[in-house]
Design a protein that fits this description.
Blueprint lengths: L4 E3 L10 E9 L3 H13 L5 E4 L8 H4 L11 H4 L14 H14 L6 E2 L2 E9 L4 E8 L5 E11 L23 E3 L14 E5 L3 H11 L4 E6 L5 E4 L4 H8 L4 H25 L1 H13 L8 H5 L11 E4 L2 H7 L3 E5 L2 E5 L2 E4 L4 E3 L2 E4 L12 E4 L2 E2 L7 E2 L3 E2 L5 E3 L8 H22 L4 E3 L10 E2 L10 H6 L6 E2 L10 H7 L10 E3 L1
Parallel strand pairs: 2-3, 2-7, 3-4, 5-18, 7-22, 8-17, 9-10, 9-17, 10-13, 11-12
Antiparallel strand pairs: 1-2, 5-6, 6-7, 14-15, 15-16, 18-19, 20-21, 23-26, 24-25
Helix pairs in contact: 1-11, 5-10, 6-7, 7-8
Bound molecules: flavin-adenine dinucleotide.
Flavin-adenine dinucleotide binds next to helix 1 and strand 5.
Length: 503
């Protein structure tokens, strides 16, 4: 692999020049910016660019603009391992993008990022041992060609242009506004309005306390309850270490270790003693709610804790709004929308001026990019993952799919190290292609879905898991989704065990 060059690429459309990089990173969200940092740090000789469809960095934290938008995991672990987080653990989107902006500035990454560059297709040429990308520039609609030796997919997991809204009967009859939080209208005025939020996940739990004060009333309409954890938006040990003037790098490392140890214990407790974990979660909620509040009906899910991400409600803000009557929870099902609101299956009517559909995402597979390998369209679901990062039959490509239950970025950092180690290994061994291939002994292994639906089953995955690659039941073909295993395994993964084939 050499330095960046501009030249004519034989597979490119006749007129357009192709700009070449050793590595192209897709997406300037938390994963892509992290990838750029690791690449620059660990593979300083590689030329690279980050291609981002939107007009700035941030990904998730730029797309979502609904009231109150904040993280539901702590920023000590959602932040990168290499840049200390110095504020309260639960952060707003603005704070997260500011942090990412600092990473870009401190590491002089800006010149590597091309905004408004949406990739529409990616073709692998076995002959040329490289990827060729077609890119549309949003300002000018110009079509550009890029090529690279290695493609680092940091496009996240859901479609940014549009969220998921189920189809309900009677929607056309409703006279008010229907809004999906992913496409929140700028300056939307909801003062004095009756608002119904459909959904009970982290988004609903964030929106409701943020909007409650201005609305005449806000209702969370849920088909089934979700677990919530609550506590102060502060970490005592971090505050204490700061008082002792301990350097921020140390504070970051110590607090990360503490949080990760606690999370490991909770995960283990959830598996072994789910009733105890449930009791602890309820204790947290009950302190904010009136004694006669029906916790069983509204806050007791049928699944065991940790089956889906447990949303954190800082300082109990959602429950405080329920207690003071500005917000309420209705657990029921939608029969139909009607002109003044929603008719429920119980026969009750929820009147509304505004209905917010906090109903989730549309999974997007590989950034909605048309992939082909030597002109054969790629069927991603036919491949098997290598360590949840690469895929059989797909050369020189890695995808960062973070953790669901622990912070996403913990995995983005681990995969960052892995990709850089792989690139350096290829350099050292003079290989230009690395592709996962099942060895003889792997061919009889049991194949499983990308994620085990028994273990983790949010709606967007249930709807679309058939579009994602499969995993095997043994390493290195498993997609473990377990930070505590991967943190030890990934850094020492044997690149020469035959599962990766090099040329
Ligand atoms: C509201 C919300 C809150 C969340 N809170 C948390 C949390 O607290 N903790 C946690 O761990 N996780 C959380 N998540 C999950 C979250 O999405 C990830 O943690 C993380 O932000 C994903 O980062 P990413 O960079 O991988 O992907 P994204 O943030 O999705 O960014 C991907 C980028 O790739 C770009 N892109 C995609 N396709 C193309 C293409 N074809 N061409 C060019 N560019 C492209 C997109 O425009 C986007 O900017 C949350 C998700 C949402 C939606």
């Amino acid at each position: 692999m050499g330095n960046s060059k501009t030249g004519e690429h034989s597979a490119a459309s006749a007129t357009n020049l192709t700009e070449h990089f050793d590595v192209l990173i897709v997406g300037a969200g938390i994963s892509g910016i992290g990838g750029a940092y690791h690449l620059q740090d660990q593979c300083p000789d590689k030329s690279f660019a980050v291609l981002e469809a939107q007009d700035s960095f941030g990904g998730t934290w730029r797309t979502h603009k609904y009231p109150g938008i904040r993280s539901d995991s702590d920023l000590y672990t959602f932040g990168y391992r290499f840049k200390p987080w110095t504020s309260a653990p639960i952060a707003t989107a603005a704070e997260i993008t500011k942090y990412m902006g600092e990473v870009i500035e401190e590491n002089e990454l800006a010149s590597h990022i091309r905004y408004g560059h949406a990739i529409s297709s990616a073709s692998w040429s076995t002959e040329e041992k490289m990827w060729l990308l077609s890119v549309t520039v949003s300002d000018s609609n110009e079509q550009l060609n890029f090529s690279c030796n290695f493609l680092w997919m940091c496009q996240g997991y859901y479609r940014h242009s549009e969220g998921y809204t189920p189809s309900w009967p009677g929607v056309q009859d409703f006279q008010g506004d229907i809004i999906h939080p992913q496409t929140w209208p700028e300056n939307f005025d909801y003062s004095g309005k009756k608002v119904v939020v459909i959904g009970s996940g982290a988004t609903a739990a964030t929106l409701i306390p943020a909007m409650a004060e201005k609305c005449s009333h806000i209702t969370m309409l849920q088909r089934s309850p979700t677990y919530f954890a609550t506590g102060r938006n502060a970490i005592e040990v971090a505050d204490m270490l700061r008082e002792l003037e301990i350097p921020e790098e140390w504070v970051h490392e110590i607090v990360r270790k503490k949080i990760l140890l606690e999370q490991e214990k909770i995960a283990q407790m959830s598996r072994e003693h789910p009733e105890l974990v449930k009791a602890e979660l309820f204790k947290g909620i009950k302190q904010f709610l009136p004694d006669d509040y029906d916790i069983d009906q509204h806050f007791t899910p049928s699944y065991r804790p940790w089956h889906q991400r447990i949303a954190f409600v800082p300082d109990g803000d959602l429950f405080k709004r329920i207690a003071d009557g500005t917000a309420s929870v209705v657990t029921d099902e939608i029969q139909t929308f009607q002109s003044n609101g929603i008719l429920l299956k119980s026969g009750d009517v929820l009147e509304a001026d505004v209905i917010i559909t906090a109903t989730g995402f549309n999974l997007n597979v590989l950034g909605d990019i048309d992939f082909d390998i030597d002109s054969e369209p790629l069927n991603f679901s036919e491949s098997i993952t290598y360590r949840g990062a690469m895929f059989t039959g797909i050369p020189n490509m890695a995808w960062v799919f973070g953790y669901f239950r622990a912070s996403w970025t913990l995995r983005a950092d681990l995969i960052g190290d892995f990709v850089c180690r792989l690139l350096n290994h290829m350099e050292e061994t003079g290989s230009s292609v690395a592709v996962p291939r099942l060895r003889e002994e792997d061919k009889s292994m049991k194949l499983l879905p990308w994620v085990d639906p028994e273990d983790f089953n949010p709606g967007y995955l249930q709807r679309s898991v058939h579009l994602l690659p499969q995993q095997g039941d043994t390493d290195p073909w498993r997609h473990a989704q377990d930070y505590w295993t991967e943190k030890d395994l990934l850094p020492i993964a044997d690149l020469d065990d035959g599962a990766l084939s090099f040329r």
